[in-house]
Amino acid sequence: MSSNLVSFSTSRKLDIVPMGRIGVDLNANEINRPMEETKTFTKYVGGSPANIAIGMARLGKKVGFIGRVSDDQLGRFALNYFRNDGIDTSNIVVDKEGASMGLAFTEIKSPTESSILMYRDNVADLKIEPKDVSEEYIKNSASLLISGTALSKSPSREACFVAMEYARKHNTVIIFDIDYRPYSWASKEEVAVYYSMTAKMSDIIIGSREEFDLMEALIDPENNSDEVTANRWFDYRAKIVVIKHGKEGSIGYTKDGKSYKVKPFPVKLLKSFGGGDAYASAFLYGLMEGWDVEKSLEFGSASAAMLVASHSCSEAMPTVKEVKEFIKKAEEEHGEVAIKS
Amino acid sequence: MSSNLVSFSTSRKLDIVPMGRIGVDLNANEINRPMEETKTFTKYVGGSPANIAIGMARLGKKVGFIGRVSDDQLGRFALNYFRNDGIDTSNIVVDKEGASMGLAFTEIKSPTESSILMYRDNVADLKIEPKDVSEEYIKNSASLLISGTALSKSPSREACFVAMEYARKHNTVIIFDIDYRPYSWASKEEVAVYYSMTAKMSDIIIGSREEFDLMEALIDPENNSDEVTANRWFDYRAKIVVIKHGKEGSIGYTKDGKSYKVKPFPVKLLKSFGGGDAYASAFLYGLMEGWDVEKSLEFGSASAAMLVASHSCSEAMPTVKEVKEFIKKAEEEHGEVAIKS
Amino acid sequence: MSSNLVSFSTSRKLDIVPMGRIGVDLNANEINRPMEETKTFTKYVGGSPANIAIGMARLGKKVGFIGRVSDDQLGRFALNYFRNDGIDTSNIVVDKEGASMGLAFTEIKSPTESSILMYRDNVADLKIEPKDVSEEYIKNSASLLISGTALSKSPSREACFVAMEYARKHNTVIIFDIDYRPYSWASKEEVAVYYSMTAKMSDIIIGSREEFDLMEALIDPENNSDEVTANRWFDYRAKIVVIKHGKEGSIGYTKDGKSYKVKPFPVKLLKSFGGGDAYASAFLYGLMEGWDVEKSLEFGSASAAMLVASHSCSEAMPTVKEVKEFIKKAEEEHGEVAIKS
Amino acid sequence: MSSNLVSFSTSRKLDIVPMGRIGVDLNANEINRPMEETKTFTKYVGGSPANIAIGMARLGKKVGFIGRVSDDQLGRFALNYFRNDGIDTSNIVVDKEGASMGLAFTEIKSPTESSILMYRDNVADLKIEPKDVSEEYIKNSASLLISGTALSKSPSREACFVAMEYARKHNTVIIFDIDYRPYSWASKEEVAVYYSMTAKMSDIIIGSREEFDLMEALIDPENNSDEVTANRWFDYRAKIVVIKHGKEGSIGYTKDGKSYKVKPFPVKLLKSFGGGDAYASAFLYGLMEGWDVEKSLEFGSASAAMLVASHSCSEAMPTVKEVKEFIKKAEEEHGEVAIKS
After folding, report:
1. C166 and D193 in contact by Cβ < 8 A?
2. To pair with D85 at 20 to 30 A between CA atoms, which of B183, C129, C212, D103?
3. pLDDT of residue B95
4. In chain A, which residues have their Cβ closer than 8 Å to the Cβ of B193?
């Protein structure tokens, strides 16, 4: 019996179109030391929605993307990388006004202490404009994923709202992956305004407790109940709300009043970031396959565990077979680990 | 029998709080010639929501304002003017970072040919910030009026959405006066996005046919039916939608399925602008008095006629007695003129 | 016997080309009160080099101008005004990117207490670009006058230096009218850097003691001797340095080691600004006529006295006949007043 | 017999203070391919004046620096690197307003085809302000080196001119290394204006023929004679002018009317950039040692040859011993190679 209340059209050209950041990660090769002392970096495609796109492509889904890249070697690197993974890049605009790819230098001081040094001035991804968004493209996809950072600045912000209007018009499922990053945002009130506007238009919302608190800062600043939060958005359009609590696991709420709790897989951490995008892609994969929410959450949690044990956030995205093997092995080792209903 | 479906609390400290532009009009004293040839200008307070605030104060209502003025002689002039009319200025912020009052040089080439030369760079009114908006102030007002131009740029845009969130939380009536001005807006898509977001949250919406077309540009670009437009917003929160058609008059739609048409009063035009703000204030005055929509529209139309025959947009705002005398005189002269149901 | 060490070519098409600000003054008609309480304003052309251009045209000189005006009614007003005075406007660029004319609202609280409220955001005059400067135009003028405010921001700053390079190449006399206004400048060090660069290239320098102090802030911050100042610039290219001391009059230094002191004419002040531009134009007129420095300074001082007794800074610029009559009358009344050698 | 007409004080705390860019180079480890296909990068300190600082420190000189770095891991990396080489960093400001280190991704497609992808938005080095420049620091150095790119934007531009004013005041030798980079500059006229202003104040000027052409674009656009160029600046303050002609070598002109030609050392190129900074540091080292211009040029040329055969632009800077050995070995192999008088 499935509690999957969202139905993804299977007859459309694309299964999902993530929208937002696509950048370049420069990951320190010498780890467990401060970046002042690292000597070499390895280049990967990065940015949360780009990672999700790669993740879903590895899982076998038909993936597009709406975004903007620089007109230089790093922009072409990202486009090539996407194409090699079979991601449709027809709606990624090449910026002609001198914008740059965002850079993220990652520093791994210890398995639990990481940091990211961002280069986000004049960044191509936030220059996507309303006119760059094709109604036809969104009509031809089963779902649209809005990554929260794309809402942080104009004109990218308005481009997202235009995309959402088209999605509602053509019954394209709207997924909101909150992905809060303090840079780019002008004020906490601004975050609250645009997060709640987006949440009102979304079918599926995924975020941490802290991210939902930001979203509710104006309308209900005292609340810290996951259930109250989930129900608030069920009053609009949402059917599934996933709220993450770090090491304590995450809970998936569904509009039919049920909830499913999943705890993290035991894993040897290499770094403390990168799990969220793997989680989102594998969870959404499950929903698209018609799995119930419980099983989808477990699949997401497994993929997240695989990612935090690896050096990159995109290149390490696993296939379905790899995730299944990982789960099987974990269960053999630790018993049934992920799901506590 | 009243078809007034919106109820304004009469027990709150303020009847209405307009939000947005407050500037200085410099009206050419020598009219019927191009501005190149005018020699002297008279200074008035201006800006659509400021005019509405003055209009409603003259009609005897308790009026506040949310806005931002410059820290100079022109900013103080505007604050003094408001205070002389009994408008509460406690929530008008004095900008401390060098912003200027917006200026509007008006040029009257002929009764039907006017133009406005705007000074809107680094303008104080668009610098109002989310943190400048007091939840308490909005809670203490029966209604909040959002003027469309305040949505055209950050941070004023977000300040408006914060104010609307507070208004919904405290059952403060939200009035959206579209007041489209092309300056400041980055694109037509941006206009459509923020106008429709605001319309979804509003109880009363007032605008011209062209303004509603801008609002619907993404979701229903082909539509030109007023009824379709009104019903769209009745599906959200709106109870009254007023659509203006210039010389052919305007129509008030109500959520109970009725509509009321009003045509302009015959009047000797001095200038072709300034009527809209008088219309809005007198119409809202009628609704607040518990008059039916029909009578309120007629009252608005009369006040508009009085304004376009005068030199200013703010100083000429009439009292209740003056509007009533104007209507009486017009009816004696022309028969019953304004309303065609 | 003349100590006029600068020779102005009389065979060129133009006698002088001022470069820099051209704006609109809005002078309060109701004087002796704060601007908060004034009702009407009269519009004049303004801006120091524009006033000098008008002043020299009234004195019968052939005048051009290098500058940039807005593409609107106020820009056309300024161009028309110049043309009516016979000033060549062929090298005034009409801005096509939405810049505005600078505005100066003048407030006369009392004869000695005035203030000016500036509108200088996105101002056309500071948008003049190096490519707008014609080598031919400067070659065809006997002199180029650089107004200090034009040095306060790029690209106007670089346009001035380009003009000065052309002037040196073609033996066009360079006059530097310091005209310090704190707005636009980023720091005192910046002022010092560009003022001293300009002074090094100039034949005639005119400014107040305070302005020369700004110029010397890096190289000789302790100095307050006019003689030391004058000699510093004589070591470069300067031949005449005029240093103004407000009510105590001004001193003209010449490279041959002489100096001439002139005190202000007795006059009933209407306002405390506007005299400087009249002073500069009448003084330069004298030099161009081949008068000695002493007589030229007296002529400048007389014109300044006439201006501070009138309502505008441009419209009141006198003719040669009027200045001469003023001097004659003053001498009859007060004895020989202006010159103390 | 020495034709070294510039004398460097040996009694000051520092021998040289370069001013301008300090950034991070990210050099592709996989060479002879486009950057789209490279995987890893090695991190070096970069930026022309930073390279010169390192170069001179390796040659045993007492080196300071005036600049600005980011308040993050990359900024600290650069400061640490300087300190390890014994460079005084007391006058390098740590930016507190969110500026970033400039990045230069270098791509070596073939030994003769290289390119650099720049990240220069909101870059710390161009934010150095006039008030960051210490008169005392410049007084305590024998020489100040201005790197041309530091002139490309305010406030760095004005900071350079302030530094030059102090240098002239205290007889600190001014060296102008033109180092033209098109980014940051607004127009060719701007380049011409500020290059020629700087050249007028400099004792030693080093640049390529193309760079001198840019400098002379306004005052003598037709000229392509090195001798005319050198003599132009000898009329101001210059004593030595070095003009580079790529593979054909370079010529040093001295104010006493002599000139010295040097051709490049034969070398196996790894990359086509980085030689200039080695050239400048070794040439200046020679002058400071009191060598004649000829020998100094040869020393510079040798160091340049060593650099283009290595992977980095800073780390590979040689010691005196290494350069001497390189020259000796080259002469044994090829005969006397560098100098043709």
Report:
1. no
2. D103
3. 98
4. 130, 158, 161-162, 165
